[in-house]
Amino acid sequence: RRTAHQLAHVDASEELHGLPFDLLQDVDAQVGHDARGRPRETVLVQGIIDAFFYEGDNIVLMDYKTDHVKSESELVDRYKTQLDYYDDAISRISGKKVSESVFCRI
Predict the structure, then answer these.
(1) How far is CA 64 from CA 30, 38, 90, in A?
(2) What is the rounded CA–CA span in Å between residue 103 and residue 65?
(3) Cα–Cα distance measured from residue 32 to residue 17, given in angstroms and rounded to the nearest whole number
């Protein structure tokens, strides 16, 4: 597992594969409290980012999918939350912004 320091100093031409992560994520990120006025809860999200590479000061995130779908929008709708978690994780780990997320259908 690479550390944040290693990710921040990796060669910009290097494509990285299989980055595991653990991320504490607010269950309700938009609202500070639930319907009863209680503080929002935090959950542990774990995953493995399929691949990403640096493009200048930004990151391009790639996620491999084998789903059979009728349109790209169906794929995006199905996995938007997953990509949001990956975006947040890689941004926190690397300190860089994700400029683009791409599905690679295989």
Answers:
(1) 28, 38, 16
(2) 7
(3) 35
Q: Which residue has the tokens 């269950």?
A: 27
- Strands of the chain, DSSP E: 15-26, 42-55, 58-65, 97-105
Q: Which of 87, 95, 98, 89 is nearest to 24 (CA)?
A: 89
pTM of the entire structure?
0.71
pLDDT by residue (tens digit) across 50-96? Answer: 999 888 889 999 999 998 888 888 988 999 888 988 998 889 888 89
Q: In what order do the strands lie in the sheet with 58-65?
A: 15-26, 42-55, 58-65, 97-105
Length of the chain: 106
Distances (CA, A) of 89 to 16, 68, 74: 14, 27, 24
